[in-house]
């Protein structure tokens, strides 16, 4: 593609060189530059991509996008100056792949908790409705039946456009995508055209990155502020920050709620570990998903599908056929009568939601044993809060390692323990080795007891000192149960 075609819709400040050069690929990592590349020099928090312009030229880059020209200009290279290289990259990527987000209906879901569940549930609902779609989630990336491993909540914008272009080629009409705060802050959704944007909730998370809750809130809100007037924004008005998301959006505004008046209103009529009887906008239906947080997730799915033009009865029929998302309130019962739940809950709000949902269902004659930890190299302030929640709402809490990354597991556990209130000191123990912690929970559990293993959910690894080791909570539970029940 010619450079001049790639520069459409991008506010260019200055061009030095031939703008008709043929570009073979877009690259923002100088190590990946090949002959014919367009290198985008971006300023990062640690490294400035402008430092690698010369080496990119040596490797074969034919054109450079930058915020300032280098002192020495190569007459065989085209240099394009823009105000913000990171924002320009989004439109460059869209143009390079034929603006695929304009050729299908792209739906983005943001919020602290529920992004993966809602995006995956939407993908499955639309499959039940008879449509092939694309899914970009933490767990996996899918194009129809094809599965591509996911590495980030929101991939880089070149990868996103490449996937969306493949989806268009495969005949997909819809694409469902998690939109993380990191992705918004790092301009990974620039140049994308969203048909619908959904907001789940906003609670304490990622403050290691955003520093303050206000900054985290503003980042999420930016997603809605950037929507076009042709889009629809759907927000949870039971969340105190729900209406904030709609304050400056040009999109059509829609709401959903369980507790307040809304365009899409839901009621939880019955609940147990096998599922729930729900009422959405006056229509009753049964789902095998369970837990109050899932009522919100399904209600957002219902609202989004309704706004995309589907009949509410056919949406509810498709929802009633849904299966649970991997690692989200995933339940199984041992032949010894112990009930196991594996869930990704790794924030205070998510942990409280899952524990409240279990406590709403259980009869209190059985005990609730919770195994959990907190990730290393992440927000420290949520650790004591999670220690307090787990010990307050469980019969026994076993504090262990999650993904300690480069931190000392014992130091993380100590910070979690700091939040335990004196009256709950007898309700917890600490075992740094996650496998041993799960083993202790199984050993302590009796028939009818409930064991919740929280924090990792769908993940199949544990990161220790920068190395990922195979570890799967479900696999570990089954393996230990078989060994211990012999």
TrEMBL record:
A motif (Meso-diaminopimelate recognition motif) lies at residues 402-405. Gene3D superfamilies: Mur ligase, C-terminal domain (3.90.190.20), Mur-like, catalytic domain (3.40.1190.10), MurE/MurF, N-terminal domain (3.40.1390.10). It catalyses: UDP-N-acetyl-alpha-D-muramoyl-L-alanyl-D-glutamate + meso-2,6-diaminopimelate + ATP = UDP-N-acetyl-alpha-D-muramoyl-L-alanyl-gamma-D-glutamyl-meso-2,6-diaminopimelate + ADP + phosphate + H(+). It is found in: Cytoplasm. Its EC number is 6.3.2.13. Residues 327-457 form the Mur ligase C-terminal domain. The lineage of its organism: Bacteria, Pseudomonadati, Bacteroidota, Flavobacteriia, Flavobacteriales. The modification N6-carboxylysine is found at residue 220. UDP-N-acetyl-alpha-D-muramoyl-L-alanyl-D-glutamate binds at residues 30, 153-154, 180, 186, 188. Coiled coil: none annotated. Carboxylation is probably crucial for Mg(2+) binding and, consequently, for the gamma-phosphate positioning of ATP. InterPro entries: Mur-like_cat_sf, Mur_ligase_C, Mur_ligase_C_dom_sf, Mur_ligase_cen, Mur_ligase_N, MurE/MurF_N, UDP-N-AcMur-Glu-dNH2Pim_ligase. It is an enzyme of class 6 (ligase). GO terms for cellular component: cytoplasm. Belongs to the MurCDEF family. MurE subfamily. HAMAP family: MurE. Catalyzes the addition of meso-diaminopimelic acid to the nucleotide precursor UDP-N-acetylmuramoyl-L-alanyl-D-glutamate (UMAG) in the biosynthesis of bacterial cell-wall peptidoglycan. This is UDP-N-acetylmuramoyl-L-alanyl-D-glutamate--2,6-diaminopimelate ligase. The keyword Cytoplasm applies. The keyword Ribosomal protein does not apply. Residues 109-304 form the Mur ligase central domain. ATP binds at residues 111-117. GO terms for biological process: cell division; cell wall organization; peptidoglycan biosynthetic process; regulation of cell shape. Pathway: Cell wall biogenesis; peptidoglycan biosynthesis. Meso-2,6-diaminopimelate binds at residues 378, 402-405, 455, 459. It comes from Chryseobacterium geocarposphaerae.
């Amino acid at each position: 593609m010619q450079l001049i075609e790639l520069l459409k819709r991008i506010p260019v400040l200055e061009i030095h060189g031939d703008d008709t050069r043929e570009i073979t690929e877009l690259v923002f990592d100088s190590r990946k530059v090949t002959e014919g590349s367009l290198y985008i020099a971006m300023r990062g928090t640690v490294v400035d991509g402008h430092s690698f312009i010369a080496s990119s030229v040596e490797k074969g880059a034919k054109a450079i996008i930058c915020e300032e020209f280098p002192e020495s200009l190569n007459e065989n290279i085209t240099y394009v100056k823009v105000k913000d290289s990171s924002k320009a990259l989004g439109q460059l990527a869209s143009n390079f792949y034929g603006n695929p987000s304009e050729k299908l209906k792209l739906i983005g879901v943001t919020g602290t908790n529920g992004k993966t569940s809602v995006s995956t549930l939407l993908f499955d609902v639309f499959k039940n409705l008879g449509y092939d779609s694309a899914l970009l989630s933490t767990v996996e990336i899918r194009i129809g039946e094809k599965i591509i491993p996911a590495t980030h909540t929101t991939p880089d914008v070149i990868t996103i456009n490449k996937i969306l272009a493949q989806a268009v080629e495969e005949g997909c009409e819809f694409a469902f995508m998690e939109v993380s705060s990191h992705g918004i802050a790092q301009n990974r959704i620039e140049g994308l055209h969203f048909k619908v944007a959904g907001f789940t909730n906003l609670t304490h998370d990622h403050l290691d990155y955003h520093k303050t809750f206000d900054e985290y809130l503003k980042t999420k809100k930016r997603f809605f502020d950037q929507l076009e007037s042709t889009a629809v924004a759907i927000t949870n008005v039971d969340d105190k920050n729900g209406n904030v998301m709609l304050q400056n959006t040009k999109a059509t505004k829609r709401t959903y709620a369980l507790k307040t008046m809304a365009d899409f209103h839901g009621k939880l009529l019955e609940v147990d570990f096998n599922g729930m009887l729900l009422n959405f906008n006056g229509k009753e239906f049964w789902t095998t998903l369970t837990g109050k947080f899932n009522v919100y997730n399904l209600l957002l799915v219902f609202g989004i599908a309704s706004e995309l033009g589907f009949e509410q009865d056919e949406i509810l029929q498709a929802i009633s056929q849904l299966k649970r998302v991997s690692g989200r309130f995933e339940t199984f019962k041992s032949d010894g009568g112990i009930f196991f739940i594996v869930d990704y809950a790794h924030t205070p709000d998510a942990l409280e939601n899952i524990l409240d949902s279990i406590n709403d269902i259980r009869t209190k004659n059985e005990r609730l044993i919770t195994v959990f930890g907190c990730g290393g190299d992440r927000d420290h302030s949520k650790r004591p809060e999670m220690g307090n929640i787990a010990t307050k709402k469980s019969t026994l809490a076993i504090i262990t390692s999650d993904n300690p990354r480069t931190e000392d597991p014992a130091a993380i556990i100590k910070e979690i323990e700091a939040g335990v209130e004196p009256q709950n000191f007898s309700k917890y123990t600490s075992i740094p080795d996650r496998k041993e912690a799960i083993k202790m929970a199984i050993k302590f559990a009796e028939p009818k007891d409930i064991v919740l293993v929280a924090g990792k959910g769908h993940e199949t690894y544990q990161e220790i000192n920068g190395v990922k080791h195979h570890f799967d909570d479900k696999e570990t539970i089954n393996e230990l149960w078989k060994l211990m029940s012999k």
